[in-house]
Write a structure and sequence with these properties.
The chain has one domain. By secondary structure, the protein is mainly alpha-helical. The chain is built from 3 helices and no strands. Helix 2 crosses helix 3. The chain starts with 17 loop residues before the first helix and ends with a helix.
């Protein structure tokens, strides 16, 4: 486990939601941990989890964008 967070000094830290910080950021931190064996089943599981979280976040962003465009041209 990492001692210090990769995002500890990130300038946008106050704007990250609690849900995102608990899920996607945690998965990213674990994937960036240098002690993680890249050939292990744990790394494959983390990568799949990160992929699902990223897909959900991307889909939510797309929906928000489409709503914005709809309201803009309405």
């Amino acid at each position: 486990m990492m001692q210090s967070s990769v995002y500890a000094e990130h300038p946008l830290r106050p704007f990250v939601s609690r849900t995102e910080s608990w899920t996607a950021r945690r998965a990213t931190e674990l994937l960036l941990d240098r002690s993680l064996d890249l050939n292990s089943s744990e790394s494959a599981t983390l990568l799949r989890r990160w992929g699902r979280l990223h897909a959900v976040r991307s889909a939510a962003s797309l929906v928000a964008f489409l709503i914005f465009v709809f309201l803009l041209v309405r």
